[in-house]
Please model this.
Amino acid sequence: MEANLRFWRAEGQSFFQRFLLWADALDPLLLLKSPDEIRSSRLLLQSSGKTLSEPIQNDQTKQAFLLSLSSVHPDTGKIIPVLFRPPAFLPVCLPLVIASSLQFGAKQTFFSQFVFHAYTTGFTMLNGNGTAKAEEYSVQEKQIFRSLGAISYAACIGALPLVFMNRYTLKSLLTQLVVQKLLPAPLLGLMSAFTVAVVRSPEFENGIEVMDRNGKVVGLSRKAGEKAVKETALSRAVLFGTTLFLPTLLMHFVQRAKVAKTPHALASLRLVMITSVLAGMLPVSLSMFPQCGEIKRADLEPEILSSTEETKLFYNRGI
Model:
């Protein structure tokens, strides 16, 4: 089993364990590590020869694992481009989320959401499960074509309420409340889950590799791919839906209590709230499901059932 998955299986059994690990692995300072340092950490992990269940006591080994988790894809072993590594997700996404939440106009909303979904889709593509196979064409080509359509569709859906409000001159207070306050959070969450499902569709169409407890690949499972994509899509919906919903809810009470009286103070407070919620929800959403996913043997395809007697098999869930 690959070093990153081996680490997640040994150290990430509970939500709390995964949360603490992600809180360390999302440190933006890890982005400053050079490719040589990343490769050195991988060599250290390969030479350590740790077992799957052995707890990590050596601080140098743990730091090497954190650098590996934050920089290397567990299926391919390749170094992930800097802007699409997990530690870069918060610094890059934060301004995009803030821009997407501003309801200035339909065109501006479409553009900001297009850029937002383009980045998150690229992140999903480079951090998903990398074991899906296709016979007639490469999985990457299929993902790129589908992603372009998904990004455009998600951006259109995000801007659609404003288009209707402007086109039909729906300017009542109730309409503005629904379009500008209530709809943005669920729409952003749903469209984020939608783009994850689209870009990772080859995983549940063609299957992903499942392994036994020793890391031996047993076969390709579409059901494991479906489970991995569903969990990742749900976590992404929770992340961005909550990031827009909580600040909107809190700002409602702030305005009623008249804590901040000027528009500048209100805008600054809103930015602080969005930043705080996104920073807190990112490790929470990543920790919702195990990174080294498990699936029962009875839930797998018949061809895999005949290949192993293991009761549980493992796979990379992706991010």
User: Anything to note?
Assistant: The first strand starts at residue 208 and ends at 211. The CA atoms of residues 180 and 257 lie 21 Å apart.
